[in-house]
Amino acid sequence: MSVSKKVQSIAPSLTLEITAKAKKLKAEGVSIIGFGAGEPDFNTPDFIIESAKKALDIGFTKYTPAAGTVELKKAICDKFYKDNNLQYDPAQIVISSGAKSSLYHAISAIVDEGDQVILPSPFWLTYPELIKLAGGECIYVQTQKENGYKMTAEQFANAITDKTKCLILNSPNNPTGAVYSKEEIDAIAKIAQDKGIYVISDEIYEKLIYENEKHYSIAQYSPEMKELTIIINGMSKTYSMTGWRIGYLAAPQKIAKAISSMQSHTTSNACSISQYASVTALSDPKGEEFILDMQKVFDERRKLMIKELSDVKDIVCIEPKGAFYVFVNVSALYGKKFQGEVVDGSLKFADLALKKGVALIPGVAFGNDECIRLSYAISKEDIMEGLKRLKAFINELQ
After folding, report:
1. 3-state DSSP call for residue 4?
2. E strands in the chain
3. What phi and psi, each to the nearest 5 degrees, are found at residue 113?
4. How far apart are the first and last CA of the chain?
5. Contact assessment for residue 133 and residue 108, using Cβ atoms and an 8 Å cutoff
6. Is the preceding omega at residue 122 within 30 degrees of 0, hence cis?
7. Cα 268–chain centre separation
8. How many Cβ atoms sit within 10 Å of the Cβ of residue 50?
9. Is the peptide bond before 128 cis (omega within 30 degrees of 0)?
């Protein structure tokens, strides 16, 4: 029995690999501080949990329409209007089992075999694998730390060919924390609109922005650009509902209908109970209060981590303006040894750091082997202890 060539081409997740190693060491009694967290360390707010309990009590436990309940679609439309000044009809919204599912269906709906998809690097590690599953070709645009790891309009224009179908834009960005300004997005939007190129805009970290930065969706550029844009978002990061598995997308009606049809044969509807609770999350004023409180805590941790990293020799850290990650350039340390082993890249750096009780994610997973990703979705105490161990590891390199 053989596995299909498409599936054979998919790389396993390095984040899960590092996390598995860390968990194994923890199970063996080794003290490990994990900087790999890709989810808020807050519990889901009580008012959302109570809503889920109500859904159970009233028997809201059956199938829903494949694309989601009307109530949740309307709540999402209200969110887009309030937060982004974008008007969508419920028929343009598709609810999925997590934003990753939304991405998979969106890419599959517009990318044909041989189509090229432009992907600014560093990128979230799942994007290339979903593009490959759709039969597309990734065209990587290497961003520079001098520009805050953001793709310029000029870089975008230079990457376009007659095979270009789509651009994936992620702001705020995972893994860098970069936030594109309105001016930067407008410059990219003008090119995409002129060339008729689709943009899949991953806005999952929309609410986690700092330093007075503002989130701006590329769909806001013009009505024409909105018709070329598929917005991806979800409940996971905003309301700390990662396990509830509710993602959603907004798209031109023709594409939304196609995605809905496809989803009816893949996952069908997202969890009914989670959908019910998500309506409450989006509509209850307590939701905004929770977001603001969480954002404040993350901002304090962000500042702490930047401060602690600022005096570490031979590393370069660009201050993130969004999400909950710091992307650190450690390439000046390559070639040095730790306990006789040579640090020859980010994967080796991460592997050896585990020996000092620190779990982090190698940048090679995100298309940049010069860096590592540290998450501050952990307590201040763990941040301080973890950075203490990381500094000790760096100081022992020879």
Report:
1. coil
2. 33-34, 93-96, 116-121, 137-142, 164-170, 198-202, 229-234, 247-250, 316-317, 325-329, 337-338, 341-342, 358-359, 361-362, 371-375
3. -55, 125
4. 48
5. yes
6. yes
7. 23
8. 12
9. no
- What distance in Å separates the CA atoms of residue 138 and residue 152, rounded to the nearest whole number? 18
| Alpha helix segments (H runs only) across 134-249 | 153-159, 182-195, 223-226
Beta bridge partners, 317, equal 328
CA dihedral 381, 383, 386, 390 (to 10 degrees): -140
Q: Which residues have CB under 8 Å from 285's CB, separation 6+?
A: none
Q: For residues 120 and 3, give the distance between their C-alpha atoms in angstroms, rounded to a whole number.
A: 30
Going through 237-388 in order, the beta strands assigned E by DSSP cover 247-250, 316-317, 325-329, 337-338, 341-342, 358-359, 361-362, 371-375
* DSSP secondary structure code for residue 205 in this structure: T
CA 23 to chain centre: 23
- Taking 50 as the pLDDT cut, the residues of the chain under it are none
Extract the tokens encoding 41: 């360390």
At 9 the pLDDT is 81
Return d(Cα 245, Cα 237) in angstroms, integer: 11
Residues 6+ apart with CB under 8 A from 306: 317, 319, 326
Amino acid at 89: D
**pLDDT at res. 332:** 98
CA 302 centroid distance within chain: 17
Q: What is d(CA 275, CA 293) in angstroms, rounded to the nearest whole number?
A: 23
String of DSSP letters for 234-261: ESTTTTT-GGG--EEEE--HHHHHHHHH
**What digits encode the pLDDT tens for the residues 238-263?**
999 999 999 999 999 999 999 999 99
